Amino acid sequence: MHFDWPYFWHQLLEPDGAFIQGLWLTILISVGGQVIGLVIGLPMALARRSASVFLMWPARFYIFLMRGTPLLVQIVFIYTGLAAAGILRFHDFIAGPFTISGNVQAGILALGLNEGAYMAEIFRAGIDAVDRGQTEAAKSLGMVPGQILRFVVLPQALRIILLPIGNQFNIMLKNSTLVSVIGVSEMLLVTETINSATFRTFELYSVLALYFLVLTSIWGGVMRYVEWRMDRGAARGDTAVIGTLQGEHI
Amino acid sequence: MHFDWPYFWHQLLEPDGAFIQGLWLTILISVGGQVIGLVIGLPMALARRSASVFLMWPARFYIFLMRGTPLLVQIVFIYTGLAAAGILRFHDFIAGPFTISGNVQAGILALGLNEGAYMAEIFRAGIDAVDRGQTEAAKSLGMVPGQILRFVVLPQALRIILLPIGNQFNIMLKNSTLVSVIGVSEMLLVTETINSATFRTFELYSVLALYFLVLTSIWGGVMRYVEWRMDRGAARGDTAVIGTLQGEHI
Amino acid sequence: QAALPPAMMKSKTIRYCSAINLPPMEFMSPQTKPEGVDIDLGDALAKSLGLNAVYINMPFAGLIPALLADHCDAIISQLFIKKSRLQVIDEIPYMFSHEAVLLKPGAPKVPDLEALSGKKVATVTGTTATVLLDKANVALKAAGKTPIDIVAFPENTQALQQLQFGQVAAYGVAYETARYYVHKVPGQFAMGGPPYFKIATGIGLRKNETALNQALSASLATMMKNGTYATIFKKWDLGIDMLKPAGG
Amino acid sequence: MADVLVQAERVEKFFGPNKILDGVSFTVTRGETVVLIGSSGSGKTTLLRCINHLEKIEAGRITVNGFLIGYRDRRGVLIEDRERNIARQRRDVGMVFQRFNLFANLSALDNIILAPMRVRGENRAVATERAMRLLARVGLAEKARNFPASLSGGQQQRVAIARALAMEPAVMLFDEPTSALDPEMVGEVLAVMRGLAQDGMTMMIVTHEMGFARQVADRIIVMDQGRIVEDGPPERLFNAPTHPKTRTLLAVRH
Amino acid sequence: MADVLVQAERVEKFFGPNKILDGVSFTVTRGETVVLIGSSGSGKTTLLRCINHLEKIEAGRITVNGFLIGYRDRRGVLIEDRERNIARQRRDVGMVFQRFNLFANLSALDNIILAPMRVRGENRAVATERAMRLLARVGLAEKARNFPASLSGGQQQRVAIARALAMEPAVMLFDEPTSALDPEMVGEVLAVMRGLAQDGMTMMIVTHEMGFARQVADRIIVMDQGRIVEDGPPERLFNAPTHPKTRTLLAVRH
Ligand SMILES: Nc1ncnc2c1ncn2[C@@H]1O[C@H](COP(=O)(O)OP(=O)(O)OP(=O)(O)O)[C@@H](O)[C@H]1O
Ligand SMILES: Nc1ncnc2c1ncn2[C@@H]1O[C@H](COP(=O)(O)OP(=O)(O)OP(=O)(O)O)[C@@H](O)[C@H]1O
Ligand SMILES: [Mg+2]
Ligand SMILES: [Mg+2]
């Protein structure tokens, strides 16, 4: 086996500008998808828990659809399928010096819609995990459902779901590679492009894998710090229920 | 928007032979990957729990690597990267009338190696969830570790992890689409191929999504049945700990 | 007949890597059988060597890595003969190709690539169009103009459809493919101008595969002489791409 | 009649096929302390929760301060009221739970001022001022900044009482307020409740503390299988119970 | 000396920095029933677990039937034995746990025959025959096919005793075998143990059932803070305890 060490080190330590741009795009897409997922997830969770069938069934259907089909299919469907049917076409979005091109928008939207379903399930579990007594006490004080949610249930649910959400973001970082199929030049597509000119496949993919390991490890460190902070908080007594929900992913 | 209903119904109800072959390949790859994942997962879980650093650290590293990098990258790396470096080349495997081509092997292997890391964590959690008292009782009767594992701990752990494994297989079904990038003609690639001739993108991807919904729903039904059987078993009293570990995925 | 590599003698099969997505060169029939110029040629070459041909479909950017990884014996996928490629593989020339820019009907024609300044242009990852567009961008930047926004897709259908849906303004692709779509889907696409960038195109082989190289070269020569070659190019109406006119 | 604060008339409540409250009627007049006793499952908790409309009722009517609870009377037919109106009615009824139910995400002080600020729209200064007075009254002025998890059970329950009082309810409902407490903390909570009774607060109390009941109750209501089987002043019930249930309940725990 | 079955010599055991057993020495001769008492945390459980090598010891030595437990003596230095040898030694020592620890995945019968078949290599028929005899002895012949989850605590503990007996151990260790049981089930388990004592089984029993201890014990060992503070026949300890600990332990629970 021949491994081109100098090339490997060069790519690892002084990567092409395109690769760095790919790294930023990977981060942008992941964060964007996560934000959309969070924004969708909470109302979906509330709709899913609602007594009204007009809210509950659409939410259920959305979650079923997003969790029952492959993300890769969702990505192509949203970018190409919707455009083919004339439902939604993506055009460049220009904000001052920044341009977010259509396929990046589609990629973020697809990742976000997919994530929204998983977020909805996490939010739902988190809300359900808050003791019913909390809601009853709030009711008995004359608070209305919106107030109860905002001041009592959500603050407690958020602590419970912080870690599952963190795990989801780790998955999101990795899933962001899938948008390469619609031509978004994130790290994987950049690597493929460089490879199609240099053919140092093994070296290039090793570098790519290392970059992902670093990204996911950094995020893992952030999560451990948050966990530690929460545990310390719990020890000091400024919180109650933590750490119930630790699993439940893709 | 124009939706070609006749074409949609035709593809849905009387799909091309190629599509049906893609469906079988999707199932073959998913099952193959899952089997490899299970076969790898158990020893890895045992190694990860081992007191020996020569077992523990490699297992930890393997799990870290597989969970820290995107599956898509792993697939390309295993099929193209390893071969490019001359480490591992995939050749067609011919068994009588059946041929399993190199890229299918690589796809199954990549999915399986990735799955193995998640399986290892599930097995580990399952084994840890079996009450320590069970092991001590077995020790006190003179049983050696291998016997304890085989006759006491594993049978109980398996009941605990049946559902998490089932969830993983659902993810596997969806992740199998990723091997399309190395030219495995599973359902997604067949759909793309048909699309490249007919350009009925929206209709074709709708059909594809429906096929996946059916696959994952059938599997969901199987899991609910297993869950119901286990609950009934628990009610009859032929098992103890069930349902601890319900989350923990990709 | 020249000796073939032992593995190939044994399996009686030649494995071609191909991005079966670029009509009329190679594409899947509705029954998902490969067809096209390259497929006809590949089949004919295999037949003359007494072999079966199998085609392994993969993204264009993965072709050379796959060949190097020994996932196939040859690439037949309208692979242009370029210096950078000849550093890692050998190529047996068998035709000429051209590049083209595909547009929506009614869009202003493009005399050269620089005319695409500021536009969003689709390509397929790893193809020569990408390289040419990159070069044009260097020139544009030097001239102080807005560069072209290149969006590289892993495969042709994706790229083409984005033009169809107006999500990109143009598609940089081989002339042969562009022409195919202009005729195949009337009213959807238009040529941006005459073909440009004539380039020899070859069958890709690993370096040092001398036996296979000689066997294929000899078979190709025979086919050019006996008219098989010309028949194929006539069938697909690509006479302008022939290496040597029949009988000439 | 102006002095009737809580009135229940032939209240019926089902859980599934089970009749949990079976024609319950009683009145509580202003300033009265009423103790509810009954064996486990007799429906005491359910009855208190109905007064707050934490549970719906299937028949009968409950009024607090003259207002129908949880329902609107539309030409003799009761239809369930809107969430917002029910919330408004609940302000008049303070409730103290067996398991305290302090808001885990808020300090003792914030637990007390949340509803006055959000429900009654008081400003923080006013709400805090009253909250500190109430905390002092339950003997926890110095614990204002503590979170529930760092308070003992007895302290949590006293904060919970202060929280309910902060809404200035017309009547306070207590559901076994001391039964989740370690024995040494029971006294501190009962002392607070005794103080409330002396100050003339109207209260309905479910408790197993018979000594306390005898001391503070103006009336004792005895429940059995969803019915009220006896209702009278403690002296009579302790000395001359008419129903066998009363006899066993008071005898065992006396 | 041939009759010494269990011998501990100056055993020391640490958990982290804490000395849990502090120079414990005693002997148990064949057929003896020894009861261990001591307040919570005094090291009774730990001592039993050391006899089984479920815990390592840091100093001293323990022998059962003349064989060193858990260690090999290499020219005076004790080095820990191999897992396989330790497993072999454990066959001689039966253990009954506070929380029963029946194998949840196996029926009562399979719980009993598992070790005889897998460890001693008996065939199923022989193992089953003995198991049924033992089940009859503990009064559970008709529960052979039941899984642990469908047995009461007392029944589970009796199956656990049968399971330990099936390996025909030289000595049986009981760690508070009745303390996880509802009061009405304590009797049935003690009856089985009393039977074993009468049949001459060598036993070491940790228990808080002082009446039972007085009745069956040949000797009582009193532990306090990891030491043996008194060791003698029950009559003397009950009537003339020398150590203050013994006095409080026997007085309180007598
Ligand atoms: N949410 C519910 N769903 C179904 N049945 C219920 C529910 N809550 C209470 N019950 C039933 O209603 C009956 C009365 O319950 P309730 O809690 O009011 O009794 P209680 O007098 O407060 O008893 P305790 O002294 O044990 O608290 C019981 O039989 C109980 O099982
Ligand atoms: N695994 C362990 N790790 C650390 N300390 C332990 C462990 N097991 C027991 N200990 C400590 O060792 C001491 C003796 O414990 P042990 O369980 O032997 O007491 P005991 O006499 O059986 O008490 P009890 O009557 O409560 O069962 C206690 O202080 C206990 O906290
Ligand atoms: Mg109650
Ligand atoms: Mg103990």
From TrEMBL, chains A, B:
What residue ranges are annotated as transmembrane?
20-47, 68-88, 204-226
* Location relative to the cell: Cell inner membrane; Cell membrane
Where in the numbering of this chain does the ABC transmembrane type-1 domain appear? 23-223
One MF annotation (Gene Ontology) recorded for this entry:
transmembrane transporter activity
Which NCBIfam families does UniProt cross-reference here? Answer: HEQRo_perm_3TM (TIGR01726)
Per the record, the similarity remark reads: Belongs to the binding-protein-dependent transport system permease family. HisMQ subfamily.
Q: What is this protein called?
A: Amino acid ABC transporter membrane protein, PAAT family
Q: Which organism is it from?
A: Acidiphilium rubrum
UniProtKB/TrEMBL annotation, chains D, E:
Name of protein: Amino acid ABC transporter ATP-binding protein, PAAT family
Which sequence ranges form a coiled-coil region, renumbered to this chain?
Answer: none
Q: Which GO terms describe its molecular function?
A: ABC-type amino acid transporter activity; ATP binding; ATP hydrolysis activity
In terms of InterPro entries, this protein maps to: AAA+_ATPase, ABC_ATPase_HisP-typ, ABC_transporter-like_ATP-bd, ABC_transporter-like_CS, MetN_ABC_transporter-like, P-loop_NTPase
Q: Which family does it belong to?
A: Belongs to the ABC transporter superfamily.
Kindly indicate whether the keyword Transport belongs to this entry: yes
Record PROSITE patterns: ABC_TRANSPORTER_1, ABC_TRANSPORTER_2
Q: Where is the ABC transporter domain?
A: 6-250
Q: Does the keyword Isomerase apply?
A: no
Q: Which UniProt keywords apply?
A: ATP-binding, Nucleotide-binding, Transport
Which superkingdom does the taxonomy of this entry point to?
Bacteria
